[in-house]
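Case study 2.
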Amino acid sequence: MAARTQAEVGSLGTGARRAVAFGGGGEWFVAWMLGYAQGLKAAGVDLSTADVAIGTSAGSLVGAAIKGGRLDELVAAFTELGDDPAKANQLLHITLGAPSQTRADQVMGATTELTPTTLQEIGRAAMAAHNGPVAGYIAALQQLLGLSTWPTGHHTTATDCYTAESVVVSPDSGIDIATACAASSSLPGANGPTWLADRLCMDGGVSHSSTHAELLRGAESVLIIGMLDFAAHPPQHVNPAFGIAERIAPGTAEREARSLRGSGSTVHVAIANPDPTTNFMDPAQILPALAAGRERGTADAPSLLAHWG
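Prediction:
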């Protein structure tokens, strides 16, 4: 079946009791979401019991680990990488600084509107960036996940570099989970792009949304986990390479939440809101992010128990 466009997928939440949207945000947000999930689980809210999940960029990896029953294993792996930041870049085959990579980063950072034309321009820069080998990146994600099969109910997003369409990869796609996560996190100028069958794709967060929570319409209870909310917390300074949807149209997660509530879902929104100037690809940020996520998960658990218990 391969990857499908968002229009072809329609709603993934129909008939689901519990659903989660895991958003994007680099290595920092992977760690924060892992800590958040651990904090929730310790207080009785186990996100692995979600009927359906959608993961974008960082969230594709986190959602796959949680739905695949490997939360603690991925936390341990990221803790090890946080203890040895140099090992993280080596494992993930991330090498930065080439002119073509800088160009992709600059094109993305200079974008002021989200249209098919502007996303295609980013896609061209992504395809022209001389990044590390995709095969090595996929192998690293497979090693981190330790999954041989797709987790039931988990889906990932990506953006077609050529058409700018948002695409969704599902368990019945015929695409392995590590490749799907690699495509979803193929940040222009850093990783990928990655082939999803016949589509060459970049990061799923290079689109109108960093969570794609609208795909969960129809679910009884929805948890949206996002990194930034510039409407509620206007930043003085912005890292333009991250949160492109939020930078251009602040408050994306809350807008998606209002839409879902309007269709009958109970929605909880958890936004990390780190300092937006943080280097979210810096492995040295992993351990503080894990700790901050755990603290927030513990604090949020009581408000989620009524809908998740």
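The longest strand covers residues 154-160.
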